[in-house]
Each structure stands twice: as C-alpha cells, then as structure tokens.
C-alpha cells in the first residue's frame, strides 16, 4: 500500500464519494425489477470497453457503503469524476459510466409487502 502519508497520484483529480442525489425512475419499479436492471447492466457493461477488474471494483463499490466504496475505488486506482460515481476513469483514461439505478434506489421504488 506504500508508506503512511503518501497519496496515490490519482487523488489529484479524483473526487470524494458522496451519496447520490434522490432520483425518480421513469415509472415506479419494484425491487425485483431494479435488481434485474442492475444485473443486466453489470453483465453487459464490460463489453463496452474498460478493464474487467475496474468494472468488478465499481460493482463492489456500488454495493458497498460510502466508506468502503471509497476504499475500493482508491485501491483500484479509479478516478471519480462525478462524486456520485456516475462517471469514473481508470488510470489509463478509459471511461466508465454508471447509471443511477446501480448506485441507489429511486424515490418511486415499490416496496412489496
């Protein structure tokens, strides 16, 4: 991890993660539908470019709480352009765009039962 007090060079442009702003899906969806959308995104995202390890790290960070997510992106060398993680880059400059629905739940999520 390097010595204490040394910061990785990526930190210069990288923003600290913040909780995503509340958002509304085009129509109310159930948790099951949200989970399916997320699965489909993570299954197809790596095919659009970027490194698989970075996609895996982003997925782990998306599922983690803020503090752990910050640790994950820092250790993977991910440069966070939008503090809600919707836009990130890796050290080679490849772009990773994450839809809001993989990062947080919409305000119009239908809670079943």
UniProtKB/TrEMBL annotation:
Q: Which residues form the DC-UbP/UBTD2 N-terminal domain?
A: 14-112
Which InterPro entries did the record assign? DC-UbP/UBTD2_N (IPR032752), DC-UbP/UBTD2_N_sf (IPR038169), UBTD1/2 (IPR039869)
Gene3D superfamilies per UniProt: Ub domain-containing protein, DC-UbP/UBTD2, N-terminal domain
Q: Which domain of life is it from?
A: Eukaryota
Q: Where is this region: Disordered?
A: 1-21
State the name under which the record lists this protein. Answer: DC-UbP/UBTD2 N-terminal domain-containing protein
